[in-house]
Amino acid sequence: xxxxxxxxxxRRRTDPEAIEGSTSRIRAVVGRVEPADEAASTIEQIRAVxxxxxxxxxxxxxxxxxxxxxxxxxxxxxxxxxxKLQQHIERTNRKAxxxxxxxxxxxxxxxxxxxxxxxxxxRYRVIALGKPTEIQRTELHMKRYIEHLPxxxxxxxxxxxxxxxxxxxxxxxxxxxxxxxxxxxxxxxxEERMIEDKTTTLIKLYFSVSREEQALRFExxxxxxxxxxxxSEVDLQAQELWDEFTHMKYRLLKKTHTPATPWYIIxxxxxxxxxxxxxxxxxxxxxxxxxxxxxxxxxxxxIVIRGDRELKIMQKxxxxxxxxxx
Length: 326
Known about the structure:
- The protein is of the alpha/beta class and 326 residues long.
- The chain has helices at 5-14, 22-31, 42-52, 55-92, 108-116, 134-137, 143-146, 168-172, 177-195, 211-223, 233-238, 242-256, 271-285, 307-321; strands at 95-102, 124-127, 154-159, 200-208, 263-267, 304-306.
- The chain has one domain: Rossmann fold (3-Layer(aba) Sandwich).
- It has a six-stranded mixed sheet, with helices on both faces.
- Helix 2 (22-31) packs antiparallel against helix 4 and helix 5 crosses helix 13.
- The longest helix has 38 residues, at 55-92.
- It is globular.
């Protein structure tokens, strides 16, 4: 059964397991109350909101605040482990490269922010490259990414990586067929050379969101002035070109998932679970000293899926439904 955007929005307001955007819910509750004088102090404004709230508003506000609190607390023990991992990488002069690729509005940026939240900012970099310049278009595609690879003791996280050439660019017509083919033929070789020193770890993550969830997130971006900047030319066509992007994902996994350079698919309809499982996955990729013996590092197989398993899932969808789903 097809669920409309409005029906899904209504479900999210009542189903605790589906609740997203606690801050937005708090803002909505406060917005329903008669505002205090703008010149009033923060405490006076809080008192005015408390006085004007109805019983239902109070319950919703408490639910939203507690949801936000417990979500943050759930991540903190694993974020503490990331600090240990970062210290180990610095101490042993190792290098880590983490690629965050996938659908638009699939939660890549939010997950990156949770990964680096408490890390030493001097020992990691987040790279989010814009459109290539005219000069860069004449150079080797990988060059502008290679320039940002980590030094010894450093972690680099790419918010979209060189795999733009395999996903967005061919669908949107930003590269030629020969450029796409040349990239696909050579990229695994590039990656194998990156890790051949045995001190570099490469982690490739593909964030996979459902079509319905993506539509909801785009709707939120359109209506939220703090998120409207996220709407790009690609975003505006992502729903219409859904099947094309899905086909490119299949070709990507088929060609570039290898035992030495595997892909991990992150099911990200539930942002909180996606963030937690991504952190656990990163922690499982590199051995480090002081690892907690009480935390559960076991990956959730419904959220984290290796590329070869995802290929089988997609092939089954194709046989049964005549097309890929996501």
